[in-house]
Amino acid sequence: MTSTATRHIPRRTCVVCRQVRPKPELLRIARLQGGEPTFDPRARYGGRGTYVCANENCITLLHKRKGLDRAFRRAFPAVVYQKIIQEMLDYVATKDH
Ligand SMILES: [Zn+2]
Known about the structure:
This protein is an alpha+beta fold. It has a single domain (4-96), classed as YlxR-like (Hypothetical Cytosolic Protein, Chain: A, 2-Layer Sandwich). It contains three helices and five strands, in the order E-E-E-E-E-H-H-H. The strands form two sheets. Strands 4-3-5 form a three-stranded antiparallel β-sheet. It has a two-stranded antiparallel sheet with strand order 1-2. A hairpin with a 6-residue loop joins strand 3 and strand 4 (38-39). Helix 1 packs antiparallel against helix 3. The longest helix is centred in the C-terminal third of the chain and has 19 residues, at 78-96. Zinc ion binds at residues 14, 16-17, 19, 53, 58.
């Protein structure tokens, strides 16, 4: 019973494209109580979380689709989106090197 094929891989839905993917293919955004959403690549923060595909397309569409507003039921200012989008793009870019 050591086959990895039968091992359960958690799946999450991308808040931008609504596709269900294995968790390792997604980037996590956490929001601690009362705080601003924070990019959480290592799932350190706990709290409520939402997921975005680890590709430029979904990352850059996060703002246009109001992904954070929908995930956390609050309207976030553009600066919050810009910061997270930049952090996620940087992360994806360095990961591919
Ligand atoms: Zn997506």
